[in-house]
Amino acid sequence: MKRLQATLFGALVAVGFAAQAEAPAAQQGPKQNITPGAPAQVLPDFADLVEKYGPAVVNINTRSRANRSQSLPGLDENDPFFEFFRRFMPDQQPGGRGRNAPKNAPDAPRGPLRPFGLGSGFVVSPDGFIVTNAHVVENAEEITVRFNDKRELTAKVIGADTRSDVAVIKVEATNLQVVKIGDTKKLRPGEWVIAIGSPFGFQNTVTAGIVSATSRENLSGDPNLDAVPFIQTDVAVNPGNSGGPLLNMRGEVVGINSQIFSRTGSFAGISFAIPIDYAFNVAEQLMKTGHVTRGRIGVGIQNVTKDLADSLGLAKAAGAAVSNVEEGSPAAKAGLEVGDVILKIDGRTVEGSADLSRTIRGLKPGSKITLGVWRGGKARDVSITVAEFKDEEAAKAADAGKGKSKKAENKPGKLGIAVTDIPAEQKKALKLSGGVVVEAVEGAAATAQIDVGDVILRVNNVDIANAKGFNETVAKLDAKKPVALLIRDENGTRFVTFRPEGE
């Protein structure tokens, strides 16, 4: 199970009110004021739902020629869960094949296959296609799928997409029971949902809770991952639940359980699922072609804050501000400019940078779209032909997303910061009379959370007009004394103080 590090713990609280059975007044306690005719609130009964759709949920065991520290699912011998797996899950002991491994599976010359990971999945076609998480089958050389009727079948990976953390595997079988695919757009906070999976290897474990939120974005901050609008729930999810389904009360799969919010690796009250409409779009591509095709237009973008909206004359903070336009990209050919704010795609409102990125990635290369753009206090339409996003362009996209105006040409100097001048049009859009943009950062400055794309307005008490002025001011500083920089980014303006040598 992938983890998100955090400083907060959640608490799983399931609250319900059971209807009181009729009993003598002396046994019922104090009389309560109940509105006549009001229906009693009862906890839902999940038994029929689990009985009907549980058989479509599978346990996934993977084996790999991993080193000793990987011989248990992500655990080393110092981990408190290592002893748990060793004692109660003999199939997962290091160095062995496990008594449930296929008898005719030969060891490779490089050494024996070793237990590697646990996960869950769900059947989406009667002929054996199964959807799970990409991290469940990552590096797996042998995959065993266990059904709740005790059958064990060997599976092969059809395709795994790490950017979305969605994978499809297949077993050779027919007439398998399948899940129903739901509509995430109809999901509401407060709605009851259940997870079925194999936490710690306990197959077909059922847990329940409610939807806490329907769109939690940028959880990891990893530019190599898509901007997935995760479903947040308080359903208990633990290692081994990864890849299992999140179902609504109609028995429809609305998400793939994928991440937890925890400092320990075990459930702490908050879990996250990939929305099924997003995930199944990826899965269908994997089933058809074995890979995923994504769109791109070649821009770096950021959310529009209230300050930025005010400075650009926008009525409210909405859309995605263009911080970089890649040379030769579809955006450049269409005439998009740094400082533009993209408000709509084919007439649909853009909620923010993650929404724009997700929408563009979901478009088929070659598609023609119309962007509603705000520029110079006026709205205009820009037509763009979507290109194909390729993995080798990920690094470029990540740099662009941080607001980098061009490839870094300078090396970090005395403060661990390299800067460049701000283009005149961007200064005008942001209503700046001076300042420089951070082009590269390292050391104590990076530790102080100064980032590429930040604007430096002042060094100590000296206002900065351009890169030359910045470098001259920095050259006069005492490297052993703290320095205070006035920084402006998408969140506003703040002072950042640090010692250049990190003392």
Gist?
It is built from twelve helices and 28 strands. 17% of the residues lie in helices and 32% in strands.
- Based on Cα principal axes, name the global outline: elongated
Number of strands: 28
Major sheet characteristics: 6 strands, antiparallel, barrel
Helix content: 10-25%
Q: State the oligomer.
A: single chain
Using only CA atoms, what is the Rg? 27 Å
Strand content: 25-35%
Low-confidence stretches: 3-32, 67-73, 78-109, 393-408
Task: Kindly name the structural category.
Answer: alpha+beta
The average pLDDT is 78
- The number of distinct helices, counting runs of at least 4 residues, comes to 12
Give the spatial strand order of the biggest sheet: 9-10-11-14-13-12
Topology:
Blueprint: E1 2-4, H1 25-28, H2 47-53, E2 57-64, H3 80-88, E3 114-123, E4 129-132, H4 134-137, E5 142-146, E6 152-161, E7 166-171, E8 180-181, E9 192-197, E10 205-216, E11 230-233, E12 245-248, E13 252-261, E14 271-275, H5 276-289, E15 294-296, E16 299-303, H6 306-312, E17 320-325, H7 330-334, E18 341-345, E19 348-349, H8 353-361, E20 368-375, E21 378-385, E22 387-389, H9 394-401, E23 417-421, H10 424-430, E24 436-441, H11 443-447, E25 455-459, E26 462-463, H12 467-475, E27 483-489, E28 492-498
Parallel strand pairs: 1-13, 8-13
Antiparallel strand pairs: 2-3, 2-5, 3-4, 4-7, 5-6, 6-7, 9-10, 9-12, 10-11, 11-14, 12-13, 13-14, 15-22, 16-17, 17-18, 18-19, 18-20, 20-21, 23-24, 24-25, 25-26, 25-27, 27-28
